Amino acid sequence: MTRGKVVAADDPGVRAAALRAELGRLNDAYHTRDEPLASDAYYDALFRELQAIEAADPALQAPDSPTLRIGGAPRSDLPAVRHDVPMLSLGNAFDDAGIVAFDRRVADGLGSPGPVSYAAELKFDGLAVTLRYEDGLLVQAATRGDGSVGEDVTPNARTIATIPLRLSTDKPPKLLDVRGEVLMCHADFDAINARQRAAGVREFVNPRNAAAGSLRQLDARITAIRPLHFFAYGLGSFDAGPSGAVVPETHSGLLDWFRALGVPVSEHRTVVAGSEGLLAFYRQIGELRATLPYDIDGVVYKVDDFAAQRRLGFVARAPRFAIAHKFPAEEATTTIENIVVQVGRTGAITPVARLSPVFVGGVTVTSATLHNEDEIHRKDIRIGDTVIVRRAGDVIPEVMRVLVERRPDGAAEYSLPMRCPVCDSAIVREEDEAVARCSGGLVCAAQRRQSLLHFAQRRALDIEGLGEKIVDQLVARDLVRSPADLFALDQDTVAGLDRMAGKSAANLIEAIANARQTTFARFLFGLGIRHVGEEVARVLAREFGSLDALLAADWTALMERKRVLQKENASRRTRDETVRAIPLDGIGDEIVQALAQFLGEPHNRQAITRMREVGIVWPENDGTIGLIDEPDSTPASPAGVLSGKTLVLTGSLPDLTRDAAKAIIEGAGGKVSASVSRKTDFVVAGEDPGSKADKAVVLGVPVIDQDALLRLIGQA
Ligand code: IVH
Fold first, then answer.
1. Which end of the chain is more exposed for a tag (fewer CB within 10 A), N or C?
2. How crowded is the C-beta side of 118, counted as CA atoms within 13 Å?
3. Structural contact between residues 53 and 19, judged by C-beta atoms closer than 8 angstroms
4. How far apart (Å, rounded) are the C-alpha atoms in residues 102 and 323?
5. Who contacts 401 (Cβ-Cβ below 8 Å, separation ≥6)?
6. Ligand 1 pocket residues where CB is under 6 Å
């Protein structure tokens, strides 16, 4: 953990003073300027350390310590609002043991004979607000502020679409304070930051700060154009007045009531029993987290029964009856030790930050992508900088921002190297491209390595056992320069590699030999041409039908014809005439340019010729509808026995690869879909069919095997 400016002192008094100063500084930036200087995890660590020092020696408990306060001081330019019931915070637990201990404390405190009933809900990562309804009308909204005094944001809250201006009931209570969280969804956050960027103004660090910055505006018209949401999670003051309204007896009942009144409440909540129930909820939400459209930083458990809550009461800053169970922080503070570049298959240069190891998102992270040079300059990232890194779900760790005030003296602006660190070829960046590239092509070992891995992957030539470790050795020992060389390898050579005992060498040689039989589309995809993914490769295979036709293509003429036909069709359509099929439909200029460039390189053509020579084969005219060869015919959709039928493939078929089965079905006019629905005509099931076959049975869709499929189309 980076300690920032906090002095490491042996004397606890000195250390406590330093911690107080640093926490004060961070608090101020966070609460009064919506501009955090450090990650929550860093703040929490300092806060807990200070708490521990003060607890160990009460003489060190300063009267102005941040541990005695609940939040930040209110910002002065919005009117102040005093909360008549203070807005408290929650104690935290970070692991199962902390929750088991919480549950035990609660059960002991209540003298409960059985498991305690808890309301479990999300811990929204936004800002706390309280909404005051008098006689059913929204009369005031206030932020939490320091817990006792917050800011009046009434006009701003009125612009939030989901906050009701009037409660939906005929008999509203005289007074009802609804407490909850205001937050911003990821998509809206991204859109707002894109706008900020375009306008050349400072971007928001995360959705929570964007929500806070948007709500705490003096001019509510600004809030109005920032989409915010609200979820209720608690009650403040209440006075039924003559309405006769009664507050439910449980927290879960309270939230149901809020919902009935038209106040938004999250659907992700439940009532569970004991610590086992709590931990199961935690895991369930942990899995759901990445799919939620907004940030949560944990879950919250509250004793469900209000009478029991009252008996348990409060400790200094927080209730005894509730606790927040935090997820591992997704953001953390660390330093950039170095910036290196990685070279991709197409030569793309990606700068990567090497980080001081830091625990974030549940794992220790040592590097983070910096995307490209512009991104580095936009964020002004330099070697030696202290930065906030983020790792959410399985996403590649990313450097979010620099803590500029912690920049060491003399840290220089970063620029990409001029030459490739792997092959020393020039690094070039086209004018309107964000990405710089190594110009070395297959001369560059890094690009060779990546192209071999791409060629061998399951979705391309599918060479089982040809993984990174083997490819690295083949490239390093210069045994393989281009994919064709793989087919010249002999068993002795392979057996000489590390981690290649006799049997695995034989297996690999066999896998390579088997890979010779493929499909045209897989072969094209395997070449690793920029922008040519599987789908584009399939279109190319279908339209050209043969490698010779593809190699002979006049790309300029094809694109020209495409444009002409597109225009013609547009006018024909209106006169209800036959529409002519357009060549390379769905293939844009960018792809065509990449194809023309790749196939225009003599060394690429040579590599392709060599692959043919080593015996890579595929069924000729595989999946073709002959469009390119017969330019003026009007290819109807291939009529056949499966015309208009939709089939789903599942499990592995005895003699057909998935691509081959797909080609056969499409050849007979059918369509292959990925998922089973009532509209599916047949499910073709092989070995280990999985849930698609089950679903077919449930929906009454016929399930057939490979033989039945072939009989159907008369190929048995
Ligand atoms: S209850 C007396 N419930 O977390 C308990 N708080 O550290 C008061 N928060 O300031 C809070 N989701 O901003 C509660 N479901 C939830 C919450 C929640 C988010 C925030 C809230 C509060 C902080 C407590």
1. C
2. 30
3. yes
4. 8
5. 205, 379, 387, 388
6. 88-90, 121-124, 128, 144, 181, 233-234, 300, 319, 322, 324
